[in-house]
Prior knowledge:
Chain A is mostly helical. Chain A is built from 16 helices and 2 strands. By secondary structure, chain D is an all-alpha fold.
Amino acid sequence: MNLLLNISFSSLARWIDLSLTNLLNNYMLVKAIEMVIAGLSLLVFLVPLCFFLGYMERKVAAFMQIRLGPNRVGPKGSLQIVADTVKLLLKEGLTPNASDKFLFNLAPVIVVIACMLVMAPIAFAKDFQLWDLSIGVLYISSVSSIGVIGILMAGWSSYNKYSLLGAMRSGAQIVSYELSVGLSIISIVVLTGSMRMSDIVLSQENGWWIFKGHIPVLISFIIFIIASTAEINRAPFDLAEAEQELTAGFHTEYSGMKFAMFLLAEYINLFVVSAIAATLFLGGWMPFHIGHWEAFNHVMDFLPSSIWFLGKTFAIIFIIMQFRWTFPRLRVDQLLNLEWKYLLPISMVNVLLVTIMAIMGWHF
Amino acid sequence: MTSEEIKQSVTALFSDVIYDETGEFLNILINASELRPLMELLYSKTEFKFDYLFCLTCIDWKTHLTMVYHLLSKKHRHNIVVKAKIADTNKPEIETVCDIWKTADFHEREVYDLFGVKFLNHPDMRRILLDEDWVGYPLRKNYADENMIKL
Amino acid sequence: MSLLGEDIVTGKGEFVINIGPQHPSTHGVLHLKVWLDGETINKIQPHLGYIHRSIEKMSECLSYRNFIYVTSRMDYLSAHINNQACALAVEKGLQIEATPRGRVIRLLMAELTRLQSHLLWWGCTGLDLGAVTPFFYAFREREAIMDIMDETCGARLTMNYCVPGGVMYDVHPNFQKRVKDIIVQLRSRFDEYDQLLTGNVIFEQRTKGVGYLSPEDAVSYGCTGATARGSGVSCDIRKWFPYDGYENVQFNEILGKTGDCYDRYMVRMAEMKESVNIIEQLINNIPEGDFQAKTKMVLKLAKGEYYQRVETARGELGVYIVSDGAASPYRIKYRSPNFSNLSALEVMAKGAKIGDLVAIMSTIDLVIPDVDR
Amino acid sequence: MNASTIIFYILAATIISGALLAVTSRKIFRSAVFLLFSLIGIAGLYFFIDYEFIAAVQIIVYVGGIIVLIIFSVFLTHGSGEDMKRPTIGRAAFAALAAIFGGVLTMFLISQHTFFPSGKTGIEPSPENIGSQMLSTTEHGYILPFEVVSMLLLAAMIGCIVIAIKIKVPPHKILPETDEDGIEIFDQKQTTLENKQIQL
């Protein structure tokens, strides 16, 4: 057991790299195979993750709505989501006759690719990261903005007025809320002095930023959660697919697997956003440490880092899911007012406060 | 205001109206051509002030059509029924009241749809419930539909 | 492909969108043609008749006993109150009165119907504004009420319990106990409803100042029920023209002040509490005796006209019977509350956003079969 | 040919084909999407030479900003859903000539210039270096252009706000207080109608 815990993911990766190099003796081929392995393991991780998030969403919804949720297919209804996936796979993927067929089919792919690319710099556990690049958080906020193009594409190419309205709403919404997300990320970058994900996690070794950073960081955490909920189009900010107003918004015309891809992207985005929030504010895979309490820190270290990471992430996911099942939806002008009149000025002042704090060294 | 007082006030301005008090409400029977001035009076005069048209319909008496307007005054809490006789059943026409009571807009369209009464000066005289290309007026007594199942 | 071609965009740069007949928030097959400027509504035109079944024509072919049952299908959420209106109209024509026991049972059932209708409305309002959870909370209590109806008369929704002269059967022995239970349950749940939806910031933002209907317009458009009372217009038929013993019970007519969606919402919420009060007053005082007056086998109304108004869950329902002395009515007109309330939609929604349109429609509480009849 | 050459050619092909399709596509929205691919390809090129910061900025500015703006303006353009008209032959010929002339001129200039490796080592393109260069006043400092550009952007922003500002009409009038039974308020309308009655 102890031995198993001591094997870190980086040593595993090094072992794979070494054995492949010995076996093939061709640098290019080894790199290619390693990339395929990385991509495959990401997929292998993402599909069960989405299954689990779908199941979790149903159970959380049921919990909030005094009902049981899925309980027929499989033990405790756990296979319900598999059944749904099979149903979606077998369904006919309709393409409207008047639509721009090339863009219509391309849109879900772009949405899924964009959110998968964002997974690259996320640190899942100690020494377990696909790509630790020097601009980690900047990369995340830049690549995640590709997703909006997919949504705009879907809305435009469907040849449906509801879709077009949904796409317009979603475009305005994502572009606006990106600012608040960016500014709240910047407050942590200011404190850490680095955009590298591993640096950000390591900087929280003696305490998470949400505790070390006093009230300003707490504010930027709250703003980050609100703004990123809006950015991933989840209720109460799901205006792009407001069912009661626009039937299904930008994916009104989608069915079958193409629709499932939008669903998949929604859940991956949910995970990514929660993972980033956990990394920036709650220390990522870093166990709960307090300053110089060595004994306490050691006790905390007994839990594997991946458990810490996933625990924090799912706690945030649970909060975001609770939003969805409690709040009514905002109206489109109220949504933009919230961003431009409240969140953005607050987060701008907040960045200033954090900067002063960082310069004066007032944080712990 | 009691129905006697209403009768007196109306008679002072309109000579050829017939009153019928057998039913629950006071009924005023009038010719279709004189409906409009009477309605304007009933709505505007302070002691009547029938501001609420709660029912507007038509009855097909085979020989003629009767438009029925049920009015209520929210202030004085008195009711009145105005009935206008339309003699021409082939091309029935009557003045609209939808500029006095806006609710008449939809109700008159419904009467047009089901009885074929054309309301003059109505801003949007289209069928409301049936298709635009429907033939005939279903609530007329002489309406025949070969697909109709006889009970 | 002409997404912005002539058929969609008018000369003024308006965007025409058809909401319905199949749409999640029209609560049925209502079709609204909406002219939009961006997301702002410039003009709105309802297209009706998708489920027009000509209930008036059907009623003309049926006997005075049978036509009552057809009316359950108009406003199916207040089916019992529709039946009550017809039964009262026929009783007026026969010049009889229902037995005291029958009247109280009718009244109790009418208030239970109002409660279940308002509960469904409350859930749907939450749903329309994007909050899914209230729907399930509302259905918890609604199911209990439906079970009482099921036990009493064998049907849950379209009950057909009223007959001229009283009710069809006596109530079930469990009736009193179960109704008392539901009163206690509802009293404790109202606070929960307020916590869940009423006090929510987003909900208040979505409804306050939205869908303003002036009292003048409310009267002019013939709006009734909570739609008009939200604008401060007194129009409760139970107070104005009491029937079936509403004059003997204590209850308040709730009037709003501002005439926006929030006031219409609050009026309905308060009305539910009033309904519970009415039930509480009556449930222990159901008189003994016959539940149904003795009537002839074939009912024939004297020649004449009979008009009966009742307050359904949505407003004033008028039944206008013209009799020529035969065994079936010569002409029947149902003055349905939703038909008039819907006509005021345009003044309410003009200048609002699409999201507001949904809020407005849900606070008018439309039941489309009642509009189309 | 090694892996990096292959990757370079793939990126180059993406950029060039995206650019060509963007120009030749007859649907304006498709053009915008092909332009997106071209820009993403350029970002990929930056990643390829390890200029990660520039690459991320490329994506943020061009993909997240410019392309979204282009798409929005396409949405709001009248008749943008239809195919664009085929250009006339004269126009096409002129465009081809201009393109060929531009290409030849560029090639000529490049061939005239002799490139030689500079003795100085470049600045390492890490975010820290870029940041400090951007705000430094020394030899390679960019503080002046940086500030000038920000002033320009500020001016543009204020201009946009001024253009977009609209004087709001209050959505509805303030209601008079209703009395207890909500009846008195109708009297306002009554007065106007009594005038009408005098005409009768």
